[in-house]
Amino acid sequence: MHPLDNVVWKALTTRQSGFAESFDQACRFLPEVSTVAAILEPTAHGYQSLAKLVAPGKTVNLALDAPYQAQPGWTLIFGAPMPQFVYESTSLAAPPSASGLEILELGAADADEMMELTALTKPGPFSKRTHELGTYLGIRQEGKLIAMAGERLKPPGYTEVSAVCTHPEHTGRGYARILMMEVMRRIMGRGETPFLHVREDNLHAIQLYERMGFRRRVTLHLAVLRKA
Asked: How far apart are CA 139 and CA 156, in angstroms?
């Protein structure tokens, strides 16, 4: 199997096992870290295993190889195609001009603002301790966090660029690309390959990622499920 096949499972059973809860054929991030989870195979056994890790009424996010098929005890809240892109170049182009911008490392003290920004812009699930999964960088203006990007999944040899978002009042200024390239520079400096996920309907983001040198590897299927 490729390291990016069943990528959440790979991350949680290898480099990020310290953030994982597991039972039989399922694993998930600790709830305060992320709602992302995985099953070894999309079978009744896999979903029964996952049910042991999720409290009634709570949700989890799965990245599946095919669209979700209804399973007893679960309600599909949202589903969508989710392409996986991998950065193919071995070098980075010169970053866009960041004149006058200060790129800041974000941490626990910024967690509430990070959650507010991701709730507004919806780049994907983000929880109180998601920032612990890797480096998160941000740009502030007049003290307010207006853009950010960071690292999430870390299967062997790869690191996911995640939570790329800009406040709606500050889009169109290249902040996302500036932050992404700095995150990627650090990933590649460790000898790892950047990759990312994006919803199929986010055409603007896909065009940006392709211009940067990312290439689609596969199309996964996001399933946000609530346990009965």
From this structure: 29
What's the order of all strands across the beta sheet hosting 26-29?
20-23, 26-29, 37-39
pLDDT category at 92 given cuts 50, 70, 90 is confident
Token pair in block for residue 111:
């967690």
Res. 50 pLDDT band, cuts 50 70 90 = very high
Domains of the chain in start order, with CATH, are 7-82 (no CATH), 85-218 (3.40.630.30)
Pairing of strands 26-29, 20-23: antiparallel
As a three-state string, the secondary structure of the chain is CCCCCCHHHHHHCCCCHHHEEEECCEEEECCCCCCEEEECCCCHHHHHHHHCCCCCCCEEEEEECCCCCCCCCEEEEEEEEEEEEEECCCCCCCCCCCCCCCEEECCHHHHHHHHHHHHHHCCCCCCCCHHHHCCEEEEEECCEEEEEEEECCCCCCEEEEEEEEECHHHCCCCHHHHHHHHHHHHHHHCCCEEEEECCCCCHHHHHHHHHHCEEEEEEEEEEEEEEC
* For range 145-170, the mean pLDDT: 97
Show the CA angle centred on residue 191, arms to residues 203 and 61, nearest 5°.
Answer: 45
| pLDDT at position 84 | 98
Alpha-carbon gap, residue 18 to 203, rounded angstroms: 35
Please give the Cα distance from 53 to 69 (Å, whole number). Answer: 20
Whether residue 116 is predicted with pLDDT greater than 70 in this model: the reply is yes
